[in-house]
Design a protein that fits this description.
Blueprint: H1 2-10, E1 22-27, E2 30-36, H2 45-50, E3 61-66, H3 78-84, E4 89-94, H4 105-112, E5 116-119, H5 123-129, H6 131-139, H7 169-179, E6 185-187, E7 222-226, E8 243-248
C-alpha cells in the first residue's frame, strides 16, 4: 500500500477535479503492475495497472488508495473492470469515496462480483493525499492552508521596517511543495514551483519581436512571473487587468 500511496502522490496537482489515486497489482510477493491517475480524462489508476502488456490479472490482489469508481464519467467504472479482470481481492486504503456518484457503490459492486474487499490500510495517509478533493466534495469549498512567518512576539519586522528571513529551509520546502501556486493559474518559468510542488505553472515564450499587448483570461485571478532574456520590458507585454506581477526573474 505504501507503494500505491507513493504513486498517487505523483498525480498531486494534476488530476483536478478528480482525486489522486495509486494502485499496485500483486500476486503473492510479486508486483505484477502499477498505475496512478495522471490527469483528468486519462485512465484511472486501476485501469492503468490492468492495461499493462502481458498482464494476467486473474486471481491477483489489488492495493488501491481510494474506493474504485462505480459511475460512467470520462472513463467507465473501475469496479466493473476489476470484476471483469478476475481480481480476487481488493485492499482499499481510504474506505469510501465521498463523491455521491461513488460513496460505497464501488465496494458494493466489487463484493457483488465475488471480490474479497478489505478497507482501512494506511487510511490516514491516504486521506491526507486528498484533503482538497474531500473538502470540495463534502463542504463545497476549497481546502485552505495558512502559513504565517512571524517572530515569537507576532511581528514580521522591527518598528523601523528592518526584516530578515524568519522561516527556515524545511518551511520553505513545505511552502513550495504544498502551498505555492495552489488555486491560481500561473504564467511563468520554473519558479515558483519547487521539487514536489502541487500545480505546474504554464510557461509561455514570447519572442523579442513581440510588441503587442498580451491578454490572459483567468477565472480565479492570475499571478505572473517574468524571466527576461535579452532586451525589452516584459511588464509592458501584459494587459494588467486581473494579473498580479509577483516577480521579475
Amino acid at each position: 500500500m505504501r507503494q500505491a500511496l507513493a504513486l498517487a502522490e505523483r498525480g498531486r496537482g494534476h488530476t483536478h477535479p478528480n482525486p489522486v489515486v495509486g494502485a499496485i497489482l500483486v500476486r503473492g510477493n510479486r508486483v505484477l503492475a502499477r498505475g496512478y491517475h495522471h490527469r483528468a480524462g486519462l485512465p484511472h489508476a486501476e485501469i492503468e495497472a490492468l492495461s499493462q502488456k502481458g498482464l494476467q490479472p486473474r486471481g491477483a490482489t489489488l492495493y488501491v488508495t481510494l474506493e474504485p469508481c462505480a459511475h460512467h464519467g470520462r472513463s467507465p467504472p473501475c469496479a466493473d473492470a476489476l470484476v471483469a479482470a478476475g481480481i480476487a481481492r481488493v485492499v482499499v486504503a481510504w474506505p469510501e469515496d465521498p463523491d455521491p456518484r461513488v460513496r460505497g457503490a464501488g465496494l458494493a459492486r466489487l463484493r457483488a462480483g465475488g471480490i474479497a474487499v478489505e478497507t482501512g490500510l494506511l487510511a490516514r495517509t491516504a486521506g491526507a493525499l486528498n484533503e482538497g478533493f474531500f473538502t470540495r466534495i463534502r463542504l463545497a469549498r476549497p481546502f485552505v492552508r495558512v502559513k504565517l512567518a512571524t517572530s515569537l512576539d507576532g511581528r514580521i519586522a522591527t518598528a523601523s521596517g528592518e526584516s530578515r528571513w524568519i522561516t527556515g529551509s524545511p518551511s520553505a520546502w513545505y511552502l513550495g511543495k504544498t502551498i505555492r501556486s495552489i488555486g491560481a493559474c500561473s504564467i511563468t518559468a520554473p519558479f515558483p514551483r519547487q521539487v514536489g510542488g502541487t500545480i505546474s505553472p504554464q510557461e509561455v515564450s514570447i519572442p523579442s519581436s513581440f510588441s503587442g499587448g498580451l491578454s490572459i483570461a483567468c477565472n480565479t485571478g492570475c499571478e505572473a512571473c517574468f524571466k527576461q532574456i535579452g532586451r525589452g520590458n516584459p511588464s509592458k507585454w501584459l494587459d494588467p487587468s486581473g494579473i498580479k506581477t509577483i516577480s521579475s526573474l
